Amino acid sequence: MRGDFLERYIQGTSLVHRLDPRLKLVATLAFVLVATSLPVRAWPAFVLLAFLALGAVLAARIPLGVALRRSSIALPFAGVVALSLPFTRAGQTLWSWPALGLSVTDEGLILFAAVLVKSWLSVLVSGLLIATTPFPQMIQAMRRLRLPGILGSILSFMYRYLFVLVDEAGRLMTARAARSVGRGRTVWWRARVLGRMVGSLFIRSYERSERIYAAMLSRGFGDEIRASHRLAPTSMAQLTWERRDTLSGLLWTALLAGVAAMGWLLFR
Amino acid sequence: MIRVQNLSFAYPDGRRALSGIDLEVRAGEKVAVVGPNGAGKSTLFLHLNGILRGQGRVEVGGLAVGERTLRQVRARVGLVFQDPDDQLFSPTVFEDVAFGPLHMGLPPAEVHRRVDRALAAVGMAGYERHMPHHLSIGERKRIAIATVLAMEPQVLVLDEPSSGLDPRARRNLIRLLRDLPMTMLVASHDMRLVWELCPRTVILDGGRLVADGQTADLLQDPGLMEAHGLETPYAPPG
Known about the structure:
- The complex is a heterodimer of chains A (268) and B (238).
- Chain A is mostly helical.
- Chain A is 69% helix and 3% strand.
- Chain A contains twelve helices and two strands.
- Chain A has helices spanning 15-18, 21-37, 43-59, 64-71, 74-81, 85-88, 106-132, 135-144, 149-178, 187-218, 232-235, 243-267, and strands at 93-97, 102-105.
- In chain A, strands 1-2 form a two-stranded antiparallel sheet.
- In chain A, helix 2 (21-37) runs antiparallel to helix 7 (106-132) and helix 3 packs antiparallel against helix 12 (243-267).
- The model of chain A has no long low-confidence stretch (mean pLDDT 84).
- In chain B, the strands form two sheets. A six-stranded mixed sheet of chain B has the order 6-7-8-3-9-10, sandwiched between helices.
- Chain B has one domain (2-227): P-loop containing nucleotide triphosphate hydrolases (Rossmann fold), CATH 3.40.50.300.
- Chain B has helices at 41-48, 70-76, 84-87, 93-103, 108-121, 137-149, 167-179, 191-197, 215-219, 222-227; strands at 2-10, 16-25, 30-34, 55-60, 63-64, 77-80, 155-159, 183-187, 200-205, 208-214.
- Helices cover 37% and strands 25% of the residues of chain B.
- By secondary structure, chain B is α/β, with parallel strands linked by helices.
- In chain B, strand 9 and strand 10 (208-214) form a beta hairpin.
- Chain B starts with a strand and ends in an 11-residue tail after the last helix.
- The A-B interface holds A 3, 135-136, 139, 156-157, 159-161, 163-164, 208, 211-212, 214-222, 226, 228, 230-231, 234-236 and B 46, 49, 51, 71, 74-75, 77-79, 81, 83, 85-92, 94-95, 98-100, 102-104, 108, 111-112, 128-129, 131-133, 147-148, 151.
């Protein structure tokens, strides 16, 4: 497990890669907003959104399999959070277990499925955004779009130390693999080891954060972070808006608006 | 340049880390601080720029380290930590090296100049847009030094600078440190580096200063070395 999987497709030259990060950020947010606010029964709209998202993935020349695999990470999380929905939503009962006091309703199931689909769609486009935009550029775009300075700084830290964490986790997993002969690769054993690894990583991260704070203090940090984004013009590539950004933006807006209108008007 | 008088410090859990440390370092001196693990070397260093504050007095360039002088002290004392990943906390090299000058309140043009000078001094000019996780450990150690050099400190304090470096990176580091003119305090287990770089050595053990003298004398005293968990370097540099 190495950190470079986060940046494997960053060096692309597709249209999507070359779009202004501000456009990509706003376009992603707009898509997520539409996806999450569509009525629960607007299935054709969801399908169209999926085509739109996958179309963008193809335009970015990222393999579909990769995008699908990465976005499927949303499903277990959304699934666990929405687990209670099939059982607690009022509607026609489909199955029931009187002994446990549980029953599944049709409304509940539909809502559950909709939550999964909406989460998956959102993660799909967000993943595309991250895969095609170098992070410093993304932070720069956020700052230009008036994101509060402290949030930008927190995101920068998160990105920077994600790689450190992944490396440490990788080392812990290698150590585990080196010891997993004979003990039996039972799921329970591996789960216990994983739990200890997560705990260990948490403690290490906490202690590291103390050292980082000491390093920041040593370099004059007071109570506010002064971001170097005002120095950006010479230190980082300028963000310039091109004609392709306007055209892509208009196309994306039109398609999203069309799907949203269809979803809202036909499936209220 | 640095004056430590009767410095004592105990951690909140009661563990006594430093006891009655007295140390004077003149401007331009390069002094090694050696001792076994847990002797208090890192703890002592953290007192030099006010991150830890104990009983006793610490003065840097005549300025007493205290609540109100922290900003100035931290501009004068550049502390380089052992793990460069603790010090390189920004997404790009440029932002890391610019952090210090920026928080000193310098104007953008001056910040740029200092970043350029600092990176050139460590031989990493042109790496501004790189992200730290793309660099090797030797390169990261050099950038960590640059982040501190950009503040143009009068004193450079380094905690285990050569740990984790391969021979070539270590050799580059020694060369770099030898050429820097400022007062230097170096904590290291690398006895040959100590011998090559620092004419004066101070031994810390159990929170006390147990020896202070010429490196050649101290390091060639096998009884002294053994008593404090150290070793005379094999084939010391001629």
